[in-house]
Write a structure and sequence with these properties.
Elements (H helix, E strand, L loop, with lengths): L3 H17 L5 H4 L5 E2 L8 E4 L2 E5 L3 H6 L2 H5 L5 E5 L3 E4 L5 H11 L5 E6 L25 E7 L19 H15 L3 E2 L3 H9 L66 E7 L24 E4 L28 E2 L3 E3 L10
Length: 345
């Protein structure tokens, strides 16, 4: 495990790279692990190098997670990312999404499912107008009809990830960002997401440690959590919020990316699938037979997830085009080379 001094040096290097991205030439600014922003209110992007990695569950993963979860992560297979792409250093924040809404007048929000605290002073409490739901729903799951990224069932700060947003609404933001920058912004594919999360690691958790160290790297159901899942936690977070934490609250991976595990589910380009049989091996997204998706794959897990779900290989729930949740967000990606899957002619 890296020591405190190593972590400080890493953070210093990330800060230098971020500063240089505004003064270097375009070619230099797109060097691996450098960063850039296409406008003041745009997300900070980190340039990732081409490379190969093993995607999916390893033998070590199988020792940590239950067989049902592991089945969706098999077969483990080699993926070649033969192009440079950039990915958001953080999940898109409330402030960043608000800039899009303010400039375009986009109408967002509507029905949003909330995961509510099960312990503490805010047990079962939320902001919004509840809609009638199935009688077999747990009491800590409520759907409101007026959920919005500014009010996802609770008060949020500008630096928390934007939630209560649908896949369709994320696409609207990406279209605005593309027009503003002259680049083709999109969601990361599942393969790109896992490549970015691993940051060159091959261990179940990208930091190389285990469940006892997990609280330094992600927001999940830790020992201080207000959710029942805390009973299996091996550590306690600082901070330990009831919902999402401000982006960057925990330590980054070796490529300077924050919150790649926990905090909020993250949307991807891929259609949801039961496993990796027939999955692409070139970084491109999985599509339906007609090129469309009924539901979409998500990654990262969220603030009420158990620790073993924060493995780099772990796959999450499928979501529809218009589904919203106070635990669902996204980060953006953009290809930088002409041989990338979305730029090939």
């Amino acid at each position: 495990m890296p020591g405190k001094g190593t972590y400080v040096l890493q953070r210093f290097a990330f800060a230098i790279a971020a500063a240089l991205a505004f003064t270097l030439s375009p070619a230099q600014a797109e060097a691996p692990l450098s960063s850039f922003k296409d406008c003041d209110s745009c997300p900070e992007m980190v340039v990732l190098p081409p490379g190969k990695f093993l995607m999916g569950a390893s033998k070590e993963d199988r020792k940590l997670a239950d067989a049902y979860a592991i089945q969706s992560e098999l077969p483990q297979h080699e993926v070649t990312i033969g192009y440079r792409f950039a990915i958001g250093r953080h999940e898109v924040t409330v402030a960043e999404f608000a800039a899009y809404v303010a400039e375009t007048g986009a109408k967002t929000g509507g029905e949003c499912q909330l995961r509510l605290p099960e312990f503490g002073p805010h047990t079962g409490k939320f902001i919004g107008t509840a809609k009638p739901g199935p009688t077999d729903y747990p009491p800590a799951l409520v759907t409101i009809g007026d959920g919005d990224f500014r009010s996802p069932g609770a008060k949020v700060s500008d630096q928390q990830p934007a939630t209560c947003l649908s896949h369709r609404e994320a696409l609207g933001y990406l279209d605005w960002l593309s027009k503003k920058s002259g680049k083709s912004y999109r969601l990361p594919t599942e393969a790109e997401w896992e490549y970015a999360a691993r940051a060159g690691s091959t261990t179940p958790f990208y930091f190389g440690g285990g469940l006892k160290e997990l609280c330094r790297y992600g927001n999940f159901a830790d020992r201080k959590s207000v959710y029942n899942a805390k009973i299996v936690a091996k550590c306690a977070e600082n901070p330990s919020p009831e919902g999402t934490a401000p982006v960057g609250s925990y330590q980054p991976n070796d490529w300077g990316l924050y919150d790649m595990i926990g905090n909020a589910f993250e949307l991807t380009e891929d259609c949801a699938s039961d496993n990796y049989q027939g999955a692409p091996n070139d970084g491109s997204p999985r599509r339906g037979s007609d090129g469309a998706c009924e539901t979409f794959a998500t990654r990262s897990f969220f603030f009420d997830s158990i620790g073993t779900s924060l493995r780099s290989a772990a796959r999450c729930t499928a979501v529809g085009l218009d589904d919203r949740s106070n635990g669902l967000s996204f980060r953006v990606a953009v290809s930088l080379d002409e041989n990338a899957w979305d730029r090939k002619k």
